[in-house]
Structures
1.
Amino acid sequence: MEEVVQFALLGLGLGALYSLAAHGLMIIYRGSGVLNFAQGAIGMVAAYLCWDLAFEQGLPWALAVVVGVAASAALGVLTHVLVMRPLRRASSLARIVATLGVLILLQGLVVLQYGSDVIPVRSTLPTDIISLGGDLTITVDRVILVSLAGLLAVGLWWLYRFTPFGLGTSAVAENQLVASTLGWSPDRIAILNWALGSALAGVAAILVSPIVQLQAGTMTTLVIAALAAALIGGFRSFPIVFAAALAIGIAQTEVTRFVDLPGLGQSVPFAVIVAVMILRGQSLPTRDFFLQRLPAVGTGTVRPGLVVFGVAVGAVAMTVVPVVWQDALTITLGFALVLLSIVVLTGYAGQISLAQFAIAGLGAWIAARLDATLDVPFLLAVLIGVAAALPIGVLFALPAVRARGLSLAVVTLGLGTAIELMVFNSPSLSGGVLGTDVHVPSLFGLSLDPIVHPGRYGLFALAVFALAALAVANLRRGRTGRRMLAMRTNERAAAALGINVPAMKAYAFGLSASVAALGGIVLAYRNDTIIFSEFTNFISIETVAWAVIGGVGFVFGPVLGATLAPSALGTEIGNTLFSNVTEYVVPLSGLILILFLIQNEAGLVKQNIDQLHHLARKLRIPWPAPTGAGATYDGGDARIERAAPKRLELAGVTVRFGGVVAVDDLSLAVDPGRIVGLIGPNGAGKTTAIDAVTGFVPAAEGSITIDDEDVTRMSAARRARSGASRSFQSLELFEDMTVLDNLRTASDPFDRASYVSDLVRPVTPPLPPPVVAAIQEFQLGDDLDRLASDLPYGRRRLVAIARAVATRPSVLLLDEPAAGLGETESAELARLVRRLADEWGIGILLVEHDMAFVMSVCDELVVLDFGRTIASGPPAAVREDPSVIAAYLGDGDDDAVPAAAGTNDREDR
């Protein structure tokens, strides 16, 4: 037991340094909304500069520390002013990748200046031993570090809680626009927080360098432990982050000492990150979750002539160019496969992964170990490695069910680094520095020896990439691709259409892992001895950067982005034009990435398409409209099919948010062909009631049944497939998809076979008659090839309802469908809604504030006030109810209420 306590004391120092770094991350995040993945690199610059000045140039250590910390603060300010401020309106992905670009640039510059070897650093803090009784001791430097971190946590807590600067930072974090109207400058606040947060990164890196020694990659991965502590504190509480950082430091030292498994101790922060995300995350995002802008996505259209021409050019080039160029082309294709996996995962599915190169290495590791230890033939080893990567990708998807955006990027970075530490750096698992010897690859008896026949091996790589790219393009055009795009645009709306969001994420992670594994195998088998420590997770970060540069939503983008990889085509071109360009590839790729993001975050492919489109317009050459895949409509059967008659019933439904009761004991029923209006003042719980019915919030009490089937505990997707569809108050259309693809996504049949068949032969079946009828009913024929984002507001409202109807529901829940419409549009919509009940046989639960609309269509009204039902019955009776008048309609002249509300000749239905 005493040994356990002793190692806990040793871990306090490391935890204190994690605390300093975590507080720096928190400050930047609170002040600018940016999760700075370059935090470790900024601190690394300070640590190297301090070491250089103090131990190489002879400056006093204290002065060297001041210069190093000042340099890190200046780097933070420059990062905000030159990089993040121009990207303030860019997508979250672009901002994440921008910080990765800064990381790549700084790490590349440090390696250029100081090399990549480990530099020992002696401690300048006193290391005298303090006895704590028995055999327990602690060194003075640990006491100093813990005291410094604790005092800093208290000081920062006071600064951000009680000072005007802290209050201003909190105001800007909550709402920049409102804060600016109160006199706070968001830009000035961000600059100050970037400076302070980056300075703390410098302090942490300088103090930790004697413990972990100086090496470029070490400092950048050290930030993951800080991220884990910041996550536990919710990026808000300085004391909690301090305690969490100490706990992580202690856990790392304990695991390292008592568990004999290489890399496990260093992987403790990653386990913490995953656990926090699973416990705190949500399977579906809340109403206010949105991604400002998403990467542009191609249509996936395959033009056979261009494909044949491109493959032929590649094959000829691979055959005739010198060996060094053949190898460069092969490397480009290998990395292009890894980048293609990012197209699937990030471009199509909207999931950010910073572990794709680690997964690529894992696929290569499985194939190589089978080859080396069991003499498995090359082709079979490749197939097993690719197949084995699929469940690994699915495991990576588990945190993605409850984490998204920045959180998911953190989780995958941690998981990827854990693979590197525990597998690739383990001598027993990967062969260590000697690597793993593999047999010469051959295919059907033909040698593909990359040393003797580099051209043949390059042709193999070309064929693999061509087949994978065709599969990914096919995926985009198929039903599965539409579901993935729907999920990336809006998970809530996708679930409301019956799309199983967790399953779709698992599919995207699994497929992308298999594609990445192909790339890893192609890269690994270029050598007869594979060194797996070269599959560093830092390259995973770079692959995301290269994918964004090429075009993360386009199948050809990976080819362009992969040219920036080390020893790839771009390097060879650079070596031809200039001398010694190889050592500048990393910092140059970081710089190019930053500049490119600022100028055009959509990628090279999209930029070239836009330029060609502009040129064609100038030359008056016809150019196909940028519509979605499969966006064709030629009318067709428009028979109205009556909905399957199902009754929706709520019995005593209660919804709580903590101690707040949003819906209290709500009971109502919606029969086929009838419209029930749910009305009440703002905050009465109407939308929450719809969320409870459709599975977006859980019911604490009561039951919800659809045609006597209890759906109370079902997921949102299962309820949609049971016959309950909905619209949203905020529309929540799939903005970057065409109107027709919005409708197709809603009407596509759900079959597991499409997950495989779409990769080979995507099928776009004719629109079902009810969908054609909905297009005609809502007069959307002229809008089908337009993006949803390009429509005027009134048309968007109609598309939202038509999309809900396209699922062929038995029960339709409409959340303020007339909001923002003019009187004429509202009246026309009311007639459409009434026809959905009368002619389609759909039961409708309607939430609406427009009382003329409500009174003209509803058969029954239910009135809520503070979540409780205060009246229900026919519209005429409810309209005269004194409690309703007092709570909602107003206390004015009684005769004015019916006049304002309108009449309904169906109120006795």
Note: The chain is about 60% helix and 10% strand.
2.
Amino acid sequence: MNKKGKGRLKYLLQQTEIFAHFAEGSQTKEKKPRGRGRPASKRRAVEEDDEEYLQEEEDALASSVGTHLLVQPSCINGQMRDYQLAGLNWLIRLYENGINGILADEMGLGKTLQTISLMGYLHEFRGITGPHMVVAPKSTLGNWMNEIARFCPILRAVKFLGNPEERNHIREKLLQPGKFDVCVTSFEMAIKEKNSLKRFSWRYIIIDEAHRIKNENSLLSKTMRLFSTNYRLLITGTPLQNNLHELWSLLNFLLPEIFSSADTFDEWFQITGENDQQEVVQQLHKVLRPFLLRRLKSDVEKGLPPKKEIILKVGMSQMQKHYYRGLLQKDLEVINAGGERKRLLNIAMQLRKCCNHPYLFQGAEPGPPYTTGDHLIETAGKMVLLDKLLPKLKDRDSRVLIFSQMTRLLDILEDYLIYRGYQFCRIDGSTGGQDRDASIDAFNKPGSEKFVFLLSTRAGGLGINLATADVVILYDSDWNPQADLQAQDRAHRIGQKKEVQVFRFCTEYTIEEKVIERAYKKLALDALVIQQGRLSGQKTVNKDDLLQMVRYGAEMVFSSKDSTITDEDVDRIIAKGEETKAALDAKMKKFTEDAIKFKMDDTAELYDFDGDKEENEADFKKIVAENLVVELPRRERIRNYNESEYFKQALRQAAPAKPKELRIPKMPTLHDFQFFNSQRLNELYEKEVRHLVQTNQKKDTIDGEDEDQVEPFTAEELEEKQRLLEAGFATWTKRDFNTFIRACEKYGRNDIKGISSEMEGKTEEEVQRYAEVFKERYTELSDYERIIKNIERGEARITRKDEIMTAIGKKLDRYKNPWLELKVQYGTNKGKFYNEECDRFMLCMAHKLGYGKWDELRSAFRKSPLFRFDWFVKARSAQELARRCDTLVRLVEKENQEYDERERQARKEKRLAKKTTPTKQAASRVSDGETAPANPSKKNKTPTKQKMTPTKRAGETAPAASSKKRRQSLMDDFLGSGKKGKA
């Protein structure tokens, strides 16, 4: 073990004796073999050894005293709070002892500021300017850059992000030794650009949201271990939420010399029957104490206003009940038999969609055309509640954050906010970095009129400061309660001036009640820290839990088809919500007390809190059996046993063959981009299903009793259905549609040939037909405004390119040989490095190759003999040539405009001259006594002017002509024309 490693181990052993268990192996393995020694002439003197030992003792003494700041570094702007300064001192102590650490303060306590202040301390007091690397989620990079510029502007920060061309520019111009202090990049970019980042020896590698590397086999975790660094710092608000192995993965990343074996780590915390839980908790705390700092807002931020959570329960509309019942009946066999977990998880997801809004299902929303109206609110219980709640919040000058897991639900909420006239911002997983930062700034700026901020729970819950809002609405709850906590902490953080209210929406007597209850159980178990040597928490919900959730509330759903949405006042609903939250807290308190009483080997029982699993299962089967009267004829029924058939066979009597039931055809999935007539197809399909169901029921009636008149489904309707299916584009996939849109952006909507060249497996005729339908019915697409805007933007680029090519061509047409004669009117825009010959060649080649072919233009410069020794031009990148060409194009367009103006003026003067000249000539002849000719149409022919050829003076030479011939010869050779210059 090297000197630095020994010092680190010494510090850890001073902190706690538990590391001796892990360090023994490290010390014994790294002892160097003694060997036979060195010759006496090369042995060190005793005095030298004593001097080295003395130096080591002095270093140890200095490190034991350490640095303790009483005031923040002067390079840090703003005022750090006391606990933040304490956090900085803790980070400095880790640095001085050569220890990596985990900054795990609760979300909203300023972990970013504490980290920036550490880099500022190193810059100001130690003269260490970096380089440091911050690796964070893409959504937080803008916040990191803003915070560095705001709190420590002396640090030169570079955001390493963008497309390949932008990254290449950053790599060549900014990410160079001595030109930056901090590199801020994303997880994905660290993986893509690992070879570029491996060139540096980093002082600090800082990983934000460090739970991303809890799997030591992940690509990100492996990549981060490749970088050379002196120190590593992990930042996370949720450090201990899974199991011991993931904790070992973090410790192994921080201290690979000590925590080298996962098996050893697991053995150390293996619980036997004689050990009690408290001992294991104490051992874990001893392990983590030296390098993990965890503080809660309730402990350190006394001035932060409180946070109050209220669970608001709502009923379901008639449409929601219809879909909820249908989902349970559709997958009845899976629910009764307890099918595989994946299918149960899908059922749970569909039920949760139904609780949010029935319009999330294809075909539920009336249209096309799709309209925004009261039906958007009345068809979902949560929307009714939201419509009551928002006016009250606006009247009291509150500002609202609305979180949902489903981005399609955010689309519905966006339509609702537009319908009600509320101003809003939105961020989800598809929002770009610049748009994200612009939305946050627009919401947070003083005097902002934005009332609502729509966010997706996962994408909007990280690294965003929205403390200007004081109300958080969780439209639906996440399976992982930590995600909901992160969402709440977007508002409940430093800088918040008001009490934060959290309204958690829950649809009563549905799966959502169980999801919320399970989330609270998980949080309660997280507080226990350990179960059987494992840190609390199950990563995923198990199959039994899913079954209980799906079956919950079936009786209430089937008992009535009417809407259960109440007309209660919103204040009364909030009061009920407070009671519901208090009851749930009491239940969780009892649950926690009972869980602590369990033995460590009874952990599996902790999640089976209800204890009525078998009773619930029986009740569910009974409820569904009693209510499946009309709905289930859509399923194929098979009789396993028939007494009549049995006795007929026993008596060898041939039983009459039972007529085969007609199978109900499956309705194909109709996507909007396939341009089916969905409304009419749905009508025909429903009518056909009713016809087949009634026909089958008639066959099953005893003695052929005819209960209902069978609704006819005619051959004409069947033919119409087939024709409508053929009229759509059933073979076009989402990938084909996206390719078509990109091709339209590239070539324009009218260039069918160009679009067809991009489409794989589609003929030009198919593309032509699709393009015609697209032009007529594009408004049926769900996001047609965005699609058309992108296409029009691409067509504008094509138009601009054509304009540029026309302008260059017009300029070149004014010269007999533009390769030699073309001149550019620079004005004040003449560059210092590009000469006229270079600009002339660039314009001519751009006209020949086409505007935008920058790589080909760069290659042409390098191959041309004219620039054989022009190293400046040959060293230019394609992007630099593009910028120069754009400058020349602007000059050419300005020159063409002036030229056209002069031409128009000359033509105008010529027309005026023609009108005035005959009048003047006639007046002159009259004044001289001449008479007008008899036939005015016959005019005297003007004598032909002789062509004057200038004579060459004696002794005069023509060097310009000789140089011109030489350049012409070089140009002809380069262009491959094979022509020789004429004398």
Note: The longest strand covers residues 201-208.
3.
Amino acid sequence: MPPKTPSRTKQTPSEPQRPSFPPPLKANDIVAEFLTRKIGIDLSHTIVAYDKRVQKLLDKAEISWGVQYELARGITLGLWNWDQVGSKVGKLKGMDAAVAYRVKNIILDLPLQGRPDLTLWEEFDREQLAILENCERGLGLKGEWKGAPDWYGGQIQQIARVVKEDNGYQIQLDIPEKRRSHRLARYLGSRRIIQLRVPDQLVLNEQQSVNEYLSQKFILCGRVYVPLHAKDSSVYMVETNEEWDERQPGLWCGDQYRKSFADIIAWHNPLDLNRKQPISKWATRFALTLSNSYPVLIFEEENILLIDDIYALDWSKVGKAPAEKTMTDGCGLINAAAAREIATKMGQSIRMTAIQGRLFGGKGLWIIHPTDNDPEPKIWIRNSQSKIVYNYPLDRAHRILDLLSISGPPTSTSLSRQSIVNLAHNGIPHDVLVTLMVDGLTDEVKPLMEWNGPHAMIALWNTVNRLGNVSGTRLQRSTAGLSRALGLTGREWGHDDVGMTDKAAALKEALEELAKPTYTGRSEYSGLPLGMNETALEMIQSGFRPEKAPFLRDKLRYITREKITSTVEKYQIPLPQSLTAFVVPDPLGILEEGQVYYRSSQAMINPDTQTAFNVVTGDVLVGRYPVRLPSDIQKMRAVDIPELLHYSDVIVVSTKGTFSPASLLSGGDYDGDELFLIREAALVEPFKNKPLTEMPVNLQKDNFEGHVESVDAFAERVMSLSPREAQTAFQQILLLGLNDSKVGLYSKFHDYAVFRYSYADHRAVRMAYMFNILLDSSKTGLRLKPGIFERDRGQFGREIPDHNPPTTKPFILHSLLLAGTNAGHELLRQYDEISGIKNFTAADLDLKTPFNLASDHARKVSQELKINAFSEELSLIKKHVEAAFDAFKTACAKSDNPSPQKQRNKPRREKKDSMLVAAQLYARDIPGVLLIRNVEEVKASYAYHLSSGTFAFNVAFRQICDIKAHADPRGVAPSIRPFDEAKAITSQFQKFLKRNDGNK
């Protein structure tokens, strides 16, 4: 595409005006009458966990909420009954940090094991004190609170799950988590919200009965929780101020500050002021208050302003502009003063260009205002961003900018199956894509086999760290809910994967997890990391070498194999020169159609000239996932426009023309969508643009049904029903997000249609648009007509074969699968044939030394001093370790998958740890051992004596690594865990390693 001469005529935004929002609509009689009903009260109910007699005892003793939750959790899991709880109330008094982690031990009379992590329970106490203070401290921006700097609330998630029973459904409580925060939890308090996870399969097979079950109120410890919103296979329930079964509100715990269900709705999404919206879209607006976010800045009411959108030149200005004609859809402005304050709060040395967040009734992205230099923070919300209307004066919560994410330096990207199929259709030769995949795979995997040289282990450590993103994972663990706001992760993945866990499985896991309030990423007993890459990394830094340590060598082979498998099966092709970033509309209006601007805040390197540059120029490919249509990737011209110098780390697109560039790319907008920008010449040069692939005529009419019912119309319809029927109907509206839209299935249908007919075939195009419509069905209320899904499944619900039929032309994914598989087999063969490792089975003498020394000492004392105490204690240690070893062997024999190589990068609750019993037995104290001082070291060494394979590493990983490190003649650098997990190899040292490798 030839470059276009940019116009230098700036198109500055229209001057902001205040006040900006249209006057709120007045409620008509029918909505007002509906609101007079006691919303969320006249519903049927289900008991989660409650006993009237015991609850009175708990309230009288002022048992803290975290303790009560743990008691109820044990009840729902069948670990104890209410009579057992009632008999132990006297022992349950105290703050959560002092008692909650001991609930299991108190009720079941079990000894404590290990050192508890009190982080979660301390947060429970902190939030409870903020509730009692009742000054909106939980919303944040009020400084330090009870030892936590810059504190804000809502950081605890009370998790529950729906379990299918023979006679219906049951709710089981899970261990609370401390991983995120959202506005609703900050406003109400974490304890007032329960996130109920509903298995996908349950929704698929029993949607109607599940919805009926969830259209109730739920009773937990005498408190009433009512479902408010369904999102990502989770239902969010809020505690209301309704009293249950004569329970009296407790002033000691802040019950007097609870709110009614109607008040909660009116606070976030008032029905009367938003009554002209479709009721289905109104219901989706609760998702805005549930987004994982971080409160960063509060604006004065007069500094929250409205600015109109920029529209396509050919828009008729009749009615509401469609998204494709709204050139700034979802993107507002924020002044430099506000951006600087946010950057300071986030610990950024350079202010960001774009901020994704939630403010007032608006959502989306905000970029720096091009002309405003006011020292007071200001923000402009565009019409396309405004989703909820409120009355003035504004609630403090609605004046706080809740940050979701920020723009940052470029991150490299990879092609996936969707973009690969698009590129192949649009002119990229198959052999180019095959070469990129094989070369990329080789470049990723080969460093795992480079073990020779004075710094080889440091380079290997760095490779393992990079491939497994260990440093990033550790940072996400330590930053909890801030990972997205800090730019460590992208958009929310959606719902957690929920398995259909039956009651027996829940019981089995309950005891081992009941006292684990936080996820540390490693076994609390052995210290063994749960991630394979982190395990290998810690062994390498302890002094183990793969050619002499079979356990490490097996881990590295597994990492190698998994990298090959994921690359080949997911069709990942790394593109080191390409990047991803937020897409934003040109704030100056000087880019021409087909032009983009990208400037990195950090220097990039041209691999051909080895020179640094910041601004991308020349032809590039831009696209946005999901990529399903020929026009979803476009070739554009990257230009250097000096006037846009301050807009770094974002992809700026033109606001000129007749069609929004973001909308052209898979129907995107500017509310936080990310584009990928491809620079590799082998992909850019042969690419041929395709015009917009339009939706087939009458597709929506022929395939979908759905009455677009306004809030007004809904209220009028249900007023003729009984109060309970009306409220149940209202609950079902709130639960519209919990539906089997079949989005995933239509994604697969599209994949098959592309393979069977071709990418641009009308059947593939239809499947692409069916997918897109279903993706937004929770907002639109559209549902498939009867028979449509069955017809489509019959035609497209098939698996793509592993190879091409001989009569058809090659399919690009088949070509890549064949080439990647062959390359992977060759790389694994090379790994297995690394010189000197095949037959190396010698034991590690360093690991045997502590036990040998202890044995020699015991023998010497017995022989020379006639004292047998040391030998007797050594026998106790041996018996203790041997008992754990027997449990380990039993677990291995019973396990369907005993190999430690199958360890996955998942939280413990997502995998069955067959070695848990052995680790627990091993970790117990050994009564009677008083003279031997280095008991843990001797235990670990003897465990290695018993089995130099996997046993010692599984039950004593921390100690084994410590023994190995201290045996290294180069010395040990002592470090506590937080410092160790914060370290990384500097870029300068990486350059040294590369130079050193090059001179070998």
Note: Residues 411-421+575-684 form a domain with the Barwin-like endoglucanases fold (CATH 2.40.40.20).
